[in-house]
From TrEMBL:
The lineage of its organism: Bacteria, Bacillati, Bacillota, Bacilli, Bacillales. Gene3D superfamilies: Aldehyde Dehydrogenase, Chain A, domain 1, Aldehyde Dehydrogenase, Chain A, domain 2. This is Aldehyde dehydrogenase family protein. Residues 18-483 form the Aldehyde dehydrogenase domain. Keywords: Oxidoreductase. Pfam families: Aldedh. It comes from Paenibacillus antri. GO terms for molecular function: oxidoreductase activity, acting on the aldehyde or oxo group of donors, NAD or NADP as acceptor.
C-alpha cells in the first residue's frame, strides 16, 4: 500500500508480490456514508489477469504436493493475523460498504472462524475404501484438486464470502485467482495482506482487482482456470456459468434470493417481529438470505403488523461507524438507485407504503446513500416487489388465509435460497420443512444467518445447485478419483 495525498493506494497481489495494474489505471473506492474516498484500487486489464493465472499455474504442482496439515498450518496463521486486525478490517469494511461496525467486526470474526474450520479440514479423510469384486484388490476413492480456481466475489460480505471460497480451495490443494468486488477492494487488500504475512508460497493465491466485465468475465473464459466459484447477481452468474460450461470448466454459482418469513397464527409475534427486522434489515437488507417477503396468516396479521411498525420506527439510520446506528447506507450509488426505484414501482403497482422508503431528512446524512426502512402492505404475489430481488431495506407484507396458502405464496417465486417459519406447532414446522422450496430452511429463526460448518446453497434460480461451506465444499474444489489397485 502506498499513499497519494493521504489517500492510500492499493495494488494487485500476484506471484507473492504487490504489483500495480500493468496499464497503471486506478479507481477510487468510495464511502457510501459520505462519498469520501477510502482508497484507490487497481483497474486491471486482461494482461494482469494473464500474469496472475500464469503465476497460479506455476505454483500449483508444488502446492498440491504439500500435506493437508502443512496447508492447514498456513490457514491457521492467516486466521491469527486476521484476528489481530479485526477492528481495522471491520472499520475498513464499514467505511467501504456501509454495514455497521458491529456487523463488520462480526463478519471478520466469522472469516477467522472459517479459516480455522478449513485449516482443520486438512487433517480429515478425503476418501472411502469400497469392497472390490476381486478379493486381492484395494478399491478406494481419493480426491484431486481442480488446479487453479477463480473466485469472483461480491461487496455485501467482503470478508466472509471470499474466505469461504478461498479457504476450501486452498486446503484441498488448489491455487487461486481472486477477483473481489471493486467496491470493497480495500477490505480485500487487507484480507490479502493476512494471507501474504502468513507465508503462503508465491503464486498460491493472487488477487486481481478490476471491473467485472474485464476481469470477472475474463476469468470465466480463461483456459488456465479450471474451476470458477461466483457469488453475485443472477444475470452475471448465468453469464459466468455459461462461459465456464462452454470451455468445460467446473463452476459453482450462488446468486439471488427472495426469501420469505412465514408467520403462522400461533407464532410468538414478538420473536417473529424481531426475526423479520433482523433478517430483513440488517446490513441494510443486502444479503442474499435477507427476508424480503413477510407472509402472515390472517389471524395474526393485525397484531403482527402493529408490532412490526412500532419496532421499525425505533431503528436509527446513520453512518455505520456511529455506535447508535442500527441501519447504515446502501453500499453504493447504483444499489441506492435500484432500491429507490423498487420503492417507486411498489407504489405504482398499487401496494401501500405504510412506513419509510424515503431519504432521511437529517442534514448530516445528505451526502450518503441512505434510505429509511420501507414496509409495504397490500402486496400481491405478481407484483415486482414480491418477485424480484431488491437487495435493500424493503419489506413486503402479504396476508394469507391459511398456512397452506402461505407456503404456496412462499414458493411462488423463481428463487429458493432461504425461508423461515414462526410457529409453536411441530406438525406445522415439519410440513413447512417438507413443502418449502429453499436450500436453507429455518424454523423459529430468521432467514439470514449461515452456519459455516453446514452446507449452504439454494434451490431453483438461486444457485447452480451446488453447495458451499462445511464439508460440502470438498465436492466443488476437488474431483473424485476411483482407484482399483491390485498387487
Ligand atoms: N447473492 C448475493 O449475495 C449477491 C447478490 N447481488 C445482487 O446483484 C445485484 C447487483 O449487484 P452487483 O454488485 O452489480 O452484482 P454483480 O453480480 O454485478 O457483482 C458480483 C461480482 O461479479 C463481478 N462481475 C460484474 N460483472 C461481471 C461479469 N460480466 N462477469 C463476471 N463477473 C462480473 C463484480 O465485479 P465488480 O463489482 O468489480 O464489477 C463482482 O465481483 C444486487 O442488487 C443484488 O440483487 C449482489 C451482490 C451479492
Ligand atoms: O446470511 C448470511 O450469513 C450469508 C448471506 C450470503 O451468503 C450473501 O448475502 O451472499
Amino acid at each position: 500500500m502506498n499513499a497519494t495525498n493521504d489517500i492510500p493506494v492499493y495494488a494487485n497481489y500476484i506471484g507473492g508480490a504487490w504489483v500495480a495494474a500493468a496499464g497503471g489505471a486506478t479507481v477510487p473506492s468510495v464511502n457510501p456514508a459520505n462519498r469520501s474516498v477510502v482508497g484507490v484500487v487497481p483497474a486491471s486489464t486482461r494482461a494482469d489477469l494473464d500474469r496472475a493465472v500464469e503465476a497460479a499455474n506455476e505454483a500449483r504442482r508444488a502446492w498440491r504436493k504439500l500435506t493437508g496439515a502443512q496447508r492447514g498450518t498456513l490457514l491457521f496463521k492467516a486466521a491469527d493475523l486476521m484476528e489481530r486486525r479485526l477492528d481495522e478490517i471491520g472499520e475498513t469494511m464499514t467505511r467501504e460498504m456501509g454495514k455497521t461496525f458491529a456487523e463488520a467486526k462480526g463478519e471478520t470474526a466469522r472469516g477467522v472462524a472459517i479459516l480455522r474450520y478449513y485449516a482443520g479440514e486438512g487433517m480429515r479423510k478425503t476418501g472411502d475404501v469400497i469392497p472390490a469384486t476381486d478379493a486381492e484388490a484395494l478399491l478406494y476413492t481419493t480426491r484431486a484438486p481442480l488446479g487453479v480456481v477463480g473466485a469472483i466475489t461480491p461487496w455485501n460480505f467482503p470478508v466472509a464470502i471470499p474466505i469461504w471460497k478461498l479457504a476450501p480451495a486452498l486446503i484441498y490443494g488448489n491455487c487461486v485467482v481472486w477477483k473481489p468486488a471493486t467496491d470493497t477492494a480495500v477490505t480485500a487488500a487487507k484480507v490479502m495482506e493476512c494471507f501474504h504475512e502468513a507465508g503462503f508460497p508465491a503464486g498460491t493465491i493472487q488477487m486481481v482487482v478490476g471491473g467485472g466485465r474485464e476481469i470477472g468475465q475474463g476469468m470465466a473464459e480463461h483456459p488456465g482456470i479450471h474451476g470458477i466459484t461466483f457469488t453475485g447477481s443472477n444475470a452475471v452468474g448465468k453469464q459466468v456459468g455459461a462461459a465456464a460450461f462452454a470451455r468445460g470448466a467446473k463452476y459453482q454459482l450462488e446468486m439471488g434470493g427472495k426469501n420469505p418469513i412465514v408467520v403462522a397464527a400461533d407464532a410468538d409475534l414478538d420473536l417473529a417481529v424481531e426475526a423479520t427486522i433482523s433478517g430483513g434489515l440488517r446490513s441494510t437488507g443486502q444479503k442474499c438470505t435477507a427476508t424480503s417477503r413477510v407472509i402472515v396468516v390472517k389471524d395474526a396479521y393485525d397484531a403482527f403488523r402493529a408490532k412490526l411498525l412500532d419496532k421499525i420506527a425505533t431503528l436509527k439510520v446513520g453512518d455505520g461507524m456511529q455506535p447508535d446506528t442500527w441501519l447504515g447506507p446502501c453500499a453504493n450509488e447504483s444499489q441506492y438507485d435500484t432500491v429507490l426505484s423498487y420503492i417507486r414501482q411498489g407504489v405504482e403497482e398499487g401496494a401501500q407504503l405504510v412506513f419509510g422508503g424515503t431519504k432521511p431528512t437529517d442534514e448530516a446524512l445528505k451526502d450518503g446513500f441512505y434510505v429509511t426502512p420501507a414496509v409495504f402492505e397490500g402486496v400481491t404475489s405478481r407484483m415486482k416487489i414480491a418477485q424480484e430481488e431488491i437487495f435493500g431495506p424493503v419489506l413486503a407484507l402479504l396476508r394469507a388465509e391459511s398456512l397452506e396458502e402461505a407456503i404456496e405464496l412462499a414458493n411462488d417465486v423463481d428463487y429458493g435460497l432461504s425461508a423461515s417459519l414462526y410457529t409453536k406447532n411441530i406438525g406445522q414446522a415439519l410440513a413447512f420443512v417438507q413443502e418449502i422450496d429453499a436450500g436453507l430452511v429455518r424454523v423459529n429463526a430468521e432467514t439470514a444467518g449461515v452456519e459455516l460448518q453446514a452446507p449452504f446453497g439454494g434451490m431453483k434460480q438461486s444457485s447452480s445447485h451446488s453447495r458451499e461451506q462445511g464439508q460440502a465444499a470438498i465436492e466443488f474444489y476437488t474431483s473424485v478419483k476411483t482407484v482399483f489397485l491390485k498387487p
